[in-house]
TrEMBL record:
One MF annotation (Gene Ontology) recorded for this entry: prenyltransferase activity
Annotated keywords: Chloroplast, Isoprene biosynthesis, Magnesium, Metal-binding, Plastid, Transferase
CDD domains membership: Trans_IPPS_HT
Organism the protein comes from: Cyanidioschyzon merolae (strain NIES-3377 / 10D) (Unicellular red alga)
GO biological process: isoprenoid biosynthetic process; quinone biosynthetic process
Protein family according to the UniProt entry: Belongs to the FPP/GGPP synthase family.
Pfam families to which the protein is assigned, alphabetical: polyprenyl_synt
Record's signal peptide: none
Keyword Zinc-finger among UniProt keywords: no
Protein name, UniProt field: Prenyl transferase
InterPro entries: Isoprenoid_synthase_dom_sf, Polyprenyl_synt, Polyprenyl_synt_CS
Gene: preA
Source taxon at top rank: Eukaryota
């Protein structure tokens, strides 16, 4: 959509300004990942929901920028936690600068997003977005505390994925409704929250699928990073229900040279990838159902496309 691409280009310019610091190194570290590009799914989502609800206000545009800042802040911390060296095809902030600088730049981005959030002057929106920031930390903590746990179940994986990823989509969709002209229409609030929740879950499942089945030249980050570090995701959990040998490999934390290769093979052989993709598809369908209450519009059609992209994406 032309309007959305123009606003997204404007968002990029705004974000450059919002993340300026007095300290040159802090500015450089905070800007590093933005400059590498990225899919910008979260601001696109907020702008499309805003437009589908009747038009994009300045507050909603700022909210779109804030969601990308929060997401980027969490990635800076995530790459430290995951000891990741590549993201979006370039060195991560922890590799290019250091762990310390990456943590501080992430803190700075969280602080800047909180400042601009407060400046929206809407206490309910501040509460909702603050909740999603604490959800990010809880999701990561749930993941860390279940590393290499072969007892980890699909429902717990889905709950963790909600906190880690989908809460950001759900809460920002609800906040978008709160900032719209017809903010008293609770019907939309509920549907848009659920839309974000299902899109976010579909997005995370596909992220986890691509970690195993993705093409390295398109991904811009290290593959198989999840299960090698003990993060047992949907494809692995499906495979575990059918292949007892997988338990041995995971419980010895893939410590032998051929282990990672064998895990991947078992996941493919037991259709773990296909089953995970089917689960993502179900969430995508549930997301589409949430769009039914919106009046027909170009933005609504674009939301349909965005939901489809969640499961067809290759990176
Ligand atoms: C990417 O997941 C990471 C997230 C979706 C959330 C990361 C959140 C934190 C590290 C906590 C944030 C901290 C505060 C202060 C709230 P991934 O590692 O599965 O994806 P990747 O393959 O892109 O790295
Ligand atoms: Mg990571
Ligand atoms: Mg991680």
């Amino acid at each position: 959509m032309k309007l959305i691409s123009e606003l997204l280009a404007q968002n990029e310019r705004h974000i450059q300004r919002l993340i300026q610091s007095r300290h040159a190194l802090l500015s450089a570290a905070a800007a590093h990942l933005f400059q590498a590009g990225g899919k910008r799914i979260r601001p696109t989502f907020v702008l499309l929901v805003s437009q589908a609800l009747g038009g994009i206000s300045q507050s909603q545009q700022r909210l779109a920028e804030i969601t990308e800042m929060i997401h980027t802040a969490s990635l800076l911390h995530d790459d430290v936690v995951d000891e990741a060296s590549k993201r979006r095809g370039i060195d991560t902030v922890n590799t290019r600068f250091s762990n310390r600088i990456a943590v501080l730049a992430g803190d700075f981005l969280f602080a800047q997003s909180s400042w601009y959030l407060a400046n929206l002057n809407n206490l309910e929106v501040v509460k909702f977005i603050s909740k999603l920031i604490s959800d990010l930390a809880e999701g990561e903590m749930r993941q860390t505390s279940t590393q290499f746990s072969t007892q980890f179940e699909l429902w717990a994986y889905l709950e963790k994925s909600f906190y880690k990823t989908a809460s950001l989509f759900a809460c920002s969709a609800k906040a978008t409704c709160m900032l719209s002209n017809d903010h008293e229409d609770n019907h939309h609030h509920k549907n848009m929250y659920l839309l974000g929740q299902h899109l976010g879950i579909a997005f995370q499942i596909m992220d986890d699928v691509l970690d195993i089945s993705g093409d390295i030249s398109q991904m811009g980050k290290t593959l198989s990073a999840d299960f090698v570090s003990g993060n047992l995701t949907a494809p692995i959990l499906f495979a575990l229900t059918q292949e007892a040998g997988l338990v041995t490999l995971l419980e010895r934390e893939c410590c032998y040279t051929q282990d990672a290769y064998q895990v991947r093979q078992m996941v493919w052989d037991t259709y773990g990838i296909e089953q995970a993709k089917d689960l993502a598809f179900e969430h995508m369908q549930a997301a589409l159902a949430c769009l039914a209450s919106l009046a027909p519009s170009e933005a609504k059609d674009a939301l349909y496309d965005l939901a489809n992209q969640m499961i067809s994406r290759q990176r």
